[in-house]
Amino acid sequence: MLGLMMDRPLLISGLLEHAQRQFADVEVVSREIDGTVLRYTYRDLAARARRLARALAGLGMGHGSRVATLAWNNHRHLEAYFAVSGSGAVLHTCNPRLHPEQLAYILNLAEDSIVLFDSSFLPLLEKVAAQCPAIGAFVLMGPVASMPAHSSLPNLLCYEALLDAHDDAFEWPVFDERTASALCFTSGTTDLPKGVLYSHRSTLLHSFALGLPDSLSLSARDCVMPVVPMFHVNAWGIPYAAPMNGCKLVLPGPHLDGASLFALIEREQVTCSAGVPTIWLGLAQYMQSNGVRPTTMRRSAVGGSAMPESLIRTFAESFDVEVRHCWGMTETSPLGTQGVPLAKHAGMSADREYALRSKQGRCVFGVELKIVDGEGDALPRDGKAAGELLVRGPWVASAYFRSDTPLLRDGWFATGDIATIDADGFVQITDRVKDVIKSGGEWISSIELENAAMGHPAIALAAVIGVRHPKWDERPVLCAVKQPGQEIDKAAILQFLADRVARWWLPDEVIFVDSLPLGATGKVQKVDLRRRYAHVLSST
Amino acid sequence: MLGLMMDRPLLISGLLEHAQRQFADVEVVSREIDGTVLRYTYRDLAARARRLARALAGLGMGHGSRVATLAWNNHRHLEAYFAVSGSGAVLHTCNPRLHPEQLAYILNLAEDSIVLFDSSFLPLLEKVAAQCPAIGAFVLMGPVASMPAHSSLPNLLCYEALLDAHDDAFEWPVFDERTASALCFTSGTTDLPKGVLYSHRSTLLHSFALGLPDSLSLSARDCVMPVVPMFHVNAWGIPYAAPMNGCKLVLPGPHLDGASLFALIEREQVTCSAGVPTIWLGLAQYMQSNGVRPTTMRRSAVGGSAMPESLIRTFAESFDVEVRHCWGMTETSPLGTQGVPLAKHAGMSADREYALRSKQGRCVFGVELKIVDGEGDALPRDGKAAGELLVRGPWVASAYFRSDTPLLRDGWFATGDIATIDADGFVQITDRVKDVIKSGGEWISSIELENAAMGHPAIALAAVIGVRHPKWDERPVLCAVKQPGQEIDKAAILQFLADRVARWWLPDEVIFVDSLPLGATGKVQKVDLRRRYAHVLSST
């Protein structure tokens, strides 16, 4: 027996229509590439998205077409989010930090017929266009005045000219909520990128979960600024959850240094943000150097990699900003876990609270997690047993786009992360399956060692890799970047670590470097480090 | 092109499994009929729900079976919520305040095969059982010791004996999320009751919306007490949203007077509640008389009928409790609107804020609203034009259970409420279509007059009805209950109203009564008043 409730599909266009009806005057603020700030409302966003939808339809975009973007967090990118997905086409957000060969590969695999791009990426596209003959139009996301005098791009069009040529008389189509809405490729460090194809249903359910008090907690009194890029896992879903909940939305553009972010946070009265730890490190350093603190910002989701406990503490104690540590992946839309204390934690000591907040948090409803051993058997939730983290739920990928790589294991997605889960459900990522250091048959967590090292005031960044060792199979090697103006040597950092980790975990070598190699999503590329330092322990 | 995300259905059993995994030790507190307090956890709830599911399967309950309940807000009723719906059967919550004839009618229409009931309702069921021969088992929700020595009920079973006979080895079945989960009949004041058949999908989407910051704002640090009955629109969805968000849940049983509620709120440290205005009036009177205020309770959703502005102000100023005025119906699951200020309202005067909060609020994402005139044409959102409120969304009913009454008008549910919507989307219910007073071709809002009258400190309750008038077709008559110990006469209340409403709105007659007739859901039965006072203006 089926219920007798309205059969209304969950569609991304519904988010925009809700914002237009209920939050017409709420602002969307966009910092453009040239540093100027554009300011309009959800009413304007909705009207321009409809005009863009008409313009793209005129270029041949139809239900199921793929439309690529190469763009920063700005208002035109946001318009494309709604115009493309709202029309039933697929928004393929490309990571501009991908190697040109990889970019050409994903544009061709997706069969993108239109590319919308910010002027910053004109040279990149000129490099790859010849390898992507199926692309019918390249649309530069700017006014006519920003168009280049010459370009090797075929079919180069101007975004604002297209919009000027169309009015906003457009009705969003209604279709199956399982329809594909967006495509995002993982940044393959060694393998080819793999595509995750989100649906309208998965996106809307994810938006509901993201707004809940124990996730980002988004209300109509919030001003949210996603620093995490819109080209990477849909800026963690904020472009959808903000109009759902009526939040003022601030899109920070390409300049994400501490000074630029702080100025924007203050001017726009941002209450809530989201980004990777390196962004918050830059912001903290700026605020500390200048003796300033945010007036309205009170919380931020931090994920992508682990936020050091010391930095979580700095944000709380020096800036009154709650860091909500989270974990997710391209394959999980990305909201997997979020770190917020439970009722039972009320009144606990600051030290215990920061230790708790340094874990990656707990799953919201909709996400199921378990950890398994090498045989696939579930491990206990005791905060000690570490195993591969498996996840399932309605916003978790079931397969990769046009790939034979099987994604599911008995209906679960095996994340490649190694984690513990404690009795309260708090997850702690201890490593990647490929990064964990196998020493004498035991595992050493590279991430725990890195966090311990970054607890030293003279260490700005740290990466620990497993290096081939004649006796122990692998042993840890610490690569560290010093804080500007600080000095520390190998003996001192080993002494510092000796108080914090088991003796047999202590790195066999410490290498001070000027910088660490970062990949397309801002993560340390350990594969490069392993190659570079493959032999440092050979003579041991 | 469909997305490639996991096809996981939204099921009510998933809420319970989530709570069991993530909030195993969080408490569920139940005040029983005899006043004793039972205290257990989501882990216990989940185990007992599985045992109940096995027991009910043993009594013949299968996918699509209907199982009725006649019960207060208590732990066994909660177990039935999950055991019945989780099994794929339909939980039919019956309102014990229905007339026995109506109760027999809905039990037969639903074809309920099992009835679970609290001992309070044994006499009522003994009255109707003979008219409901299809019911195979009557299960008294109590221990063996609570079983009556004699009863005319056939097949009378004991709930705890059934649970004792089964263990909790049970896997919740997986099925289509559109499957019917629960059935609730509207309380027909004049017509026969009409059944709304909720689905797992509608219930889960509603739960997501209910937990958002601008709805009830439910986190794992909240303790929520639904005073609104579990036999009426699923206690506004709180029994589902609480385990979704890990809230401690307090079920207050049958004793809802101010003293009982206050004691429970304080002992259990309730942070958030939900109920109809009469409940909060009783609580306010108790707290004022005793000079006390709640320690932890900071907000409550109030709906079912309009909360007078004066009472909203009392809760804010005397008790530091935010009243979130809401509107909904059995047909809307019920969350339709919720009154929370917008960012633009920051810093407004208290008077303006209370005026805003006396409106019924704004719709959350998922609910679409419009007001229409007599021809069905949309009226402007200007806060002045009043028309019938139409609603649609995935948790709005599309048809009544086994009824030929058409429910939809061009895909929208016509609520029978008359409302204004302002430019910010705030809805104000001005009347029911059947209660609005048609005077000389113009409309007079009975609700606005009632609210104005209840603004007088000597008036406890007020109802305004339209009474047949020889010249004006209808004219308003005010029926009022005085505050205990207060005196007021007709001239004084008319003088008071003259400053607050248009002159031609002033009631032609004022009738002071000891009490107003209340229906099964606690609303004033104006149909009774209209009958009783049909001729008071005939001699005019």
The quaternary structure here is homodimer
Per DSSP E runs of 2 or more residues, the count of β-strands of chain A stands at 26
User: Largest interface, by Cβ-Cβ below 8 angstroms: which chains and how many residues each?
Assistant: A-B, 73 and 74 residues
Biggest sheet overview of chain A: 9 strands, mixed
The portion of residues forming beta strands of chain A comes to 15-25%
N-to-C CA distance of chain A: 71 Å
Helical run tally of chain A = 15
Q: Supply the helix-strand structural class of chain A.
A: alpha/beta
Cα-atom radius of gyration of chain A: 23 Å
Strand order of the largest sheet of chain A: 2-1-11-10-12-13-14-15-16
Q: Which of globular, elongated, flat, extended, rod-shaped describes the shape of chain A?
A: globular
Report mean pLDDT of chain A, rounded to a whole number.
Answer: 95
Percent helix of chain A: 25-40%
User: Residue ranges of chain A: pLDDT <50 for 5 or more in a row?
Assistant: none
